[in-house]
Amino acid sequence: MSVSVPETSLQLQSRLSPDARLHLGLATVPVARPAADEVVIRVEAAPVNPSDIGAMIGPADVSRTRVERSGDAPEISMPMPPEAMPALAARVGPAVPAGVEGAGVVVAAGSSPRARALVGRVVATSTGAMYAQHRVAKVDDLLVTKDGATPAEAASSFVNPLTALGMLETMRGEGHTALVHTAAASNLGQMLNRVCLADGVGLVNVVRSQEQAGILRDIGAEHVVDSSTPTFPEDLTAAIAATGATLCFDVIGGGDMVSRVLTAMETVQAAKLTGHHRYGSSVHKQVYVCGRLDTRPTELANTFGLAWGVGGWLLTTFLAQVGPEVVGRLKDRVADELTTTFASRYARTISLREALDPEVVAAYHRRATGEKYLIAPQS
Amino acid sequence: MSVSVPETSLQLQSRLSPDARLHLGLATVPVARPAADEVVIRVEAAPVNPSDIGAMIGPADVSRTRVERSGDAPEISMPMPPEAMPALAARVGPAVPAGVEGAGVVVAAGSSPRARALVGRVVATSTGAMYAQHRVAKVDDLLVTKDGATPAEAASSFVNPLTALGMLETMRGEGHTALVHTAAASNLGQMLNRVCLADGVGLVNVVRSQEQAGILRDIGAEHVVDSSTPTFPEDLTAAIAATGATLCFDVIGGGDMVSRVLTAMETVQAAKLTGHHRYGSSVHKQVYVCGRLDTRPTELANTFGLAWGVGGWLLTTFLAQVGPEVVGRLKDRVADELTTTFASRYARTISLREALDPEVVAAYHRRATGEKYLIAPQS
């Protein structure tokens, strides 16, 4: 069954050296023999997510990238700010493979019937080390595509789709009926809009420019508010009143956005009260911070009563909490709606070698809204 | 049964007039006839809690108190800062009775056997309007004392005892095993220490002076850290490591205390990790803000990973959430340990008239640690 599997695979790796330089390079690694319940995927497409950039480059200075080697084992390096080194102490030393998720074709399988049944199928996974030509993965960790989806279509089957669905699961599980999303024009934000439209869930989209507002209105978003306008507080409050949102997923993190959202929610809830209530509305208002576009501290004003919560939200923690049954249900939905609700768009497709080109690194590192890159390891 | 019940009762009331003046006065109100499941309490003792001061005076300027009337219906008034008026709009107009909790002797009862069985007993309640000579209350809302407890001993049976027990219920319900408490030298803080010592729960006491640290050490507190010392971050981290605390009840609210506690907790949890973990420890760290000694915004630095939460915690919300069965169990414990674990101390006992003396108002308004006042409405 494994005739088409080479013995080695090129793999993109990231390494932090003790002299505070971050190295990105292509290494040749052996392709393991699959265990009974494993398959070998010939990886055809893997997206460059913001979380991938964070893991592989972190706070390193991409504007000062230096080419260390070209040829068979190309490598670039860039300086890591000294003040970032203490927190990265455990990262110094070994090279770690990059690329959380991706998709490809199963070219070999272990001995179990369920593994063997997948040979030739297009599958996606999020087990990491996907910026590679081949990847061995467990059958349980796969999403098996339907109806002839291509690897490029399946490449982003996990991070964004499960985050969008996870947000709605969290919303329902905690008794909310509508939600607010900040930085809503991103790939994830557009996907969340499609899911909410499909499920009839009210969604308040907070964006930072009229251009971003246009992107969302074009895909049918009903409630779009622009934080760069002077009427933002009133617009936000009106949209929250229209949807009844008491939950927000925020990717800005720093500054006063969290506080502004909670204050708008409390304004809406307090307006429903009769008489004086010292502690404000008793309706719980929640913000989950799942990104840090603004790295300043989060500032919470004392303007939204006492029934509130702010916390971190991390996809892997959510998936571990809800357990395999719920995760399976969510993955099934992603597979069913892969080319519609959960479609991703890419600004550019690059090879593994191009992913180490200093100019290309600078481009995908910018993370411009809608400018997502796709790595095609076979090209 | 109601021979000893007068037809009227003096009641301390608070009123905000449209000209931005807060009025405190004694009014003569009728004592209602008790319904079947009600009793009439001759109120003997009612504490002046910080929450009572907040409800009855709020942000009014007590340093500019003016005597409006003396005699049978004494009244004082003080200016309310204009900037506080919008949030208090619904408070303008009617006089509202003051005093959340208190205790006294049942002097009359409704027709039901369970109400009649209480005549002559010392009971406590937290139904409000307790700064009064008499108060009608439902049997279900009473805590019936045991073993000859006096009204003064029973006066603070609700707010602090149920808050301390509620904190431990929340701790257990959310899977934590130890906790941090800020402003720990308060009456509540000392009570929480006794509960934690009795239950074998690790408690980190954060205080703001060596004097406060001494108060706690004197009552057997094991982990006391002083935020006014330069070694506070290390001391806090060490105490959190020793106890394993992952939950904090904070009454400071503003500034960076919440962030410092979360950071210390994350430092302790991250030290247990092996290798590099980009998002830090996955152990959830929680702070509940249940006071606002510092009214500045809460500032959350980006230094404690992604497994964290901050939220409001309000006793009444907690009691509503856990339901009558749990509340009944907690009240039983308070009654059992009223003069030991849940004993309160008062700096001074005052009459209803003294509660309107400008100098006395200024004194109890200061809310100095350990300086709690008790109102004795019959004196």
Automatic annotation (TrEMBL), chains A, B:
<dbReference type="InterPro" id="IPR020843">
    <property type="entry name" value="ER"/>
</dbReference>
<keyword id="KW-0521">NADP</keyword>
<dbReference type="InterPro" id="IPR036291">
    <property type="entry name" value="NAD(P)-bd_dom_sf"/>
</dbReference>
<dbReference type="GO" id="GO:0016651">
    <property type="term" value="F:oxidoreductase activity, acting on NAD(P)H"/>
</dbReference>
<keyword id="KW-0560">Oxidoreductase</keyword>
<dbReference type="InterPro" id="IPR011032">
    <property type="entry name" value="GroES-like_sf"/>
</dbReference>
<feature type="domain" description="Enoyl reductase (ER)">
    <location>
        <begin position="17"/>
        <end position="375"/>
    </location>
</feature>
<protein>
    <recommendedName>
        <fullName>Enoyl reductase (ER) domain-containing protein</fullName>
    </recommendedName>
</protein>
<dbReference type="GO" id="GO:0070402">
    <property type="term" value="F:NADPH binding"/>
</dbReference>
